[in-house]
Predict the 3D structure of the following.
Amino acid sequence: MIALAEKPKEALAEDILSKVSASRLNCFHSCRLKFYFRYVLKLAKPATGALHVGKAVHWALQQWSKARWYGQPLDSESIKPDFDIHWQSSQEKDPVAWEIDEEQKQKDKAWGLVDMYLRDTPIPVEEKPEAVEVSVETGLPNGLPRLVGVIDLVRPEGVVVDFKTSASTPLIAQAIHRNETQLTAYGILHREATGRDASGFELHHLIKTKIPKLVVTHVGALTDQREQKFLRQVESYVDGVEREDFVPAPSLACGSCEFFHECSMWSGGPQ
């Protein structure tokens, strides 16, 4: 049976209450026990094939954006050799638990997404980014943890872009709702880094269908309402962590959770 480990609140505060990110917030509010396993116990799990595909695609698009930053745009043919090298080398640090004959299929799928994006992207090749893969940190009001994050891409006029890989085509309203926490965090961080508000946001979903496709969702500038909602989420996060309120939230998502076994063995509290 899995019991909550003894861990002083001072240690918790140092580990997970000094800083917060959109990914931590989303994990905590989707399942607090999953958050506990991932961020408090820091249980290591092999990377999944889907996660490796997403990271590989993200890396390739980062190289494409950086090349445009330096005025040396890349095409598919130029990126492919480095993509192949990165696909293998990244597994030395984060091994993947591949099923039999799965790796090549997933690699082909990942490259298909990159190739499609470079062909169908709405971003002009000659457009120079304002920022690429930039780490930003800022304080939040009322003694809340510091907010940290990495922004994928900022287009001219302060348009923040976030790349996503998805198995199915997202509905616009659902895509905006699911990513609201992350986009709000990016808006706050962009304001800290530049001294001005982002003019808007774009979600670039690369869809892993048989024939890959791109879906771009446009989101308006950050509003006071969304920012206040975000701060309320952080307050709830702090309250729950301080009370060590780490309980499961059974849902359809449990089937794909890396901590399914640990959760099923959870005892319900400290023993």
